[in-house]
């Protein structure tokens, strides 16, 4: 058991600034390469999705988290374990819908957006949209279809940064045709 | 004052530039960097172009990093001599970015404009397996870009290229004017 608990702290840490600035350089490049913010948002989401699909394996291997029983547990694991492990922050989980299929992550400080101010001509850019893709991709790999989007963003003048997550459905494992 | 400097509630200009308390995991960076490389790869036709694109991104990082490091590590004092700026990169810049000093700093025997920073296993290459057909590719071009921006913006225009040699070697070629100026500074 003691060995298992060690494994959670196993992952190496690094200065968040190189990460932040590299992300910033990427977003700047995308803004140059694409014509409008909408396209950049899409591209960021797509790249995030690719990351999420790979990140989930890393996460499951490093943490000792098993299968989550319900969406509430999923929310807790994302906020308290995954965000802590990868970005060094712990967002709070709030605003549960009565049905328990929607919640919000409130980010106190978003490491992707440190030192960032959006210029006026990019006011529809969802700067940290990569995160939505990451969450979507990672959860898809554990058979959860989830809708993820930024509901509020301090970069766009809101008081807090809020990611809204909505559970859509459990993905059934489809066997390829002809195999029963 | 222009509106864009006061817009929003983040007031980033008011924030202290002290060392950040947050750390991110190396995996997070590795996965992000991998996407960056793949994105760049999708838009180029050759290894040279890919490296140039990565260097371009690195330059942006270096340019934003320089001021903050000079302020933190050097009390706002800039370097004026070639050797000192190189040591600043080897020690301070490397520590801030990668948590360690660069492995080696050398000067070319036959050329007083050329220096080498040697890094056996650069962080950005740790997770990258280079396919055989593009074996010259070195993603440390990104770090090369960071170094080039730091040198250039400090008043030492230089060209930085990456090579596979003793691990990864960044070859720094200073402009003639830089070396000439350094010689006149000598002995003062």
UniProtKB/TrEMBL annotation, chain A:
The keyword Endoplasmic reticulum applies. GO terms for cellular component: endoplasmic reticulum; Golgi apparatus; TRAPP complex. It is found in: Endoplasmic reticulum; Golgi apparatus, cis-Golgi network. Its main location: endoplasmic reticulum. Keywords: Endoplasmic reticulum, ER-Golgi transport, Golgi apparatus, Lipoprotein, Palmitate, Transport. GO terms for biological process: Golgi vesicle transport. SUPFAM superfamilies: Ligand-binding domain in the NO signalling and Golgi transport. May play a role in vesicular transport from endoplasmic reticulum to Golgi. Homodimer. Belongs to the TRAPP small subunits family. BET3 subfamily. This is Trafficking protein particle complex subunit. It comes from Kryptolebias marmoratus (Mangrove killifish). The lineage of its organism: Eukaryota, Metazoa, Chordata, Craniata, Vertebrata.
UniProtKB/TrEMBL annotation, chain B:
Signal peptide: none annotated. One of its GO terms (biological process) is endoplasmic reticulum to Golgi vesicle-mediated transport. It comes from the Eukaryota. Pfam families: TRAPP (PF04051). Keywords: Endoplasmic reticulum, ER-Golgi transport, Golgi apparatus, Transport. GO terms for cellular component: endoplasmic reticulum; TRAPPI protein complex; TRAPPII protein complex; TRAPPIII protein complex. InterPro entries: NO_sig/Golgi_transp_ligand-bd, TRAPP-I_su5, TRAPP_component. It is found in: Endoplasmic reticulum; Golgi apparatus, cis-Golgi network. Belongs to the TRAPP small subunits family. BET3 subfamily. PANTHER family: 41-2 PROTEIN ANTIGEN-RELATED (PTHR20902), TRAFFICKING PROTEIN PARTICLE COMPLEX SUBUNIT 5 (PTHR20902:SF0). May play a role in vesicular transport from endoplasmic reticulum to Golgi. Part of the multisubunit TRAPP (transport protein particle) complex. This is Trafficking protein particle complex subunit 5. It comes from Kryptolebias marmoratus (Mangrove killifish). The lineage of its organism: Eukaryota, Metazoa, Chordata, Craniata, Vertebrata.
């Amino acid at each position: 058991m003691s060995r298992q608990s060690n494994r959670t702290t196993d992952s190496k840490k690094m200065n968040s600034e190189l990460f932040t600035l590299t992300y910033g350089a990427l977003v700047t490049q995308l803004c140059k390469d694409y014509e409008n913010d909408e396209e950049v948002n899409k591209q960021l989401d797509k790249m995030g999705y690719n990351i999420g699909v790979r990140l989930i394996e890393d996460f499951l291997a490093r943490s000792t988290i098993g299968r989550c029983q319900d969406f509430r547990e999923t929310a807790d694991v994302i906020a308290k374990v995954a965000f802590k492990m990868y970005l060094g922050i712990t967002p709070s989980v709030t605003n549960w819908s009565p049905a328990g299929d929607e919640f919000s992550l409130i980010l106190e400080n978003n490491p992707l957006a440190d030192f960032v101010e959006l210029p006026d001509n990019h006011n529809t850019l969802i700067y940290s949209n990569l995160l939505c893709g990451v969450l979507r991709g990672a959860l898809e790999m554990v058979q959860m279809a989830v809708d993820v989007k930024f509901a509020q963003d301090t970069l766009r003048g809101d008081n807090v940064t809020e990611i809204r997550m909505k559970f859509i459905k459990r993905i059934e494992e489809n066997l390829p045709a002809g195999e029963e | 004052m222009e509106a864009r400097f006061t817009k929003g509630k983040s007031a980033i200009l008011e924030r202290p530039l002290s060392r950040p308390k947050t750390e991110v995991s190396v995996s997070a960076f590795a996965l992000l960097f991998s996407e960056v490389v793949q994105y760049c790869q999708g838009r180029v036709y050759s290894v040279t172009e890919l490296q140039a694109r990565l260097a371009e991104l690195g330059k942006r990082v270096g340019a934003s990093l320089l001021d903050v490091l000079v302020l933190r590590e050097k009390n706002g004092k800039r370097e004026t001599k070639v050797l000192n700026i190189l040591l600043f990169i080897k020690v301070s810049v490397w520590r801030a970015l990668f948590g360690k000093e660069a492995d080696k700093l050398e000067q070319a025997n036959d050329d007083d404009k050329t220096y080498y920073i040697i890094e056996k296993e650069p962080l950005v290459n740790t997770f990258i397996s280079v396919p055989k057909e593009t074996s010259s590719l070195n993603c440390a071009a990104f770090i090369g870009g960071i170094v080039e921006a730091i040198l250039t913006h400090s008043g030492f225009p230089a060209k930085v290229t990456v090579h596979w040699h003793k691990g990864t070697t960044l070859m720094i070629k200073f402009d003639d004017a830089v070396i000439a100026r350094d010689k006149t500074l000598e002995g003062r």
